[in-house]
Amino acid sequence: MSERFSKKWDSKRDETPFTDRIKDAVKPPVPLKPRLDFATRRIDLQVQKLDQANERFAQRDRAIFAKIVDAYTKHDSARANVFANELAEVRKMSKMLMNAKLALEQITLRLRTASELGDVVSTLGPAVGVLRSIKGGLVSVFPEAENELGEIGNMLSGIMLEAGQTSGMTLNFDAVNDDAAKILNEAATVAEQKIKDKFPDLPPGMPSSVAARAERTNEGY
Question: Looking at the structure, do residues 15 and 43 belong to the same domain, yes or no?
Answer without folding.
Answer: no
